[in-house]
Write a structure and sequence with these properties.
It is built from 6 helices and 4 strands; from the N terminus they run ααβαβαβαβα. The radius of gyration is 13 Å and the shape is globular.
């Protein structure tokens, strides 16, 4: 077991756990990026629009897996959601997250 796995756990296991709990996938890339390819069934809410959608996301009462192109924007999105009481995890880049489905 690697040092980071020991500290933070296995990301794949966390994603699987979120999916079992009925998580939704929010892709925080721009509309243009999303149109070029995305995870089937994901919701596109660009990062710059996320704060205005917090209430809608809270109303879903589901955990959230965020994704983007590389994982940087999705990390910020997961952090924003967590501060609002939403159970969220950074799924990283959408292409690598896609393989988990």
């Amino acid at each position: 077991m690697g040092f980071f796995s020991l500290l933070f756990g296995n990301k794949t296991d966390k994603i699987k756990s979120f999916l079992k709990a009925g998580a939704i996938v929010i892709d925080v890339r721009t509309d243009e990026e999303y149109k070029l390819g995305a995870i089937k069934g994901s919701e596109n809410i660009p990062l710059h629009n996320l704060k205005s959608k917090i209430k809608d996301i809270q109303d879903l009462k589901k955990p959230v897996i965020t994704c983007c192109a590389s994982g940087i924007r999705s990390a910020k999105a997961a952090s924003i959601l967590k501060t609002q009481g939403i159970k969220a995890i950074n799924g990283g880049g959408w292409t690598s997250l896609k393989s988990k489905f």
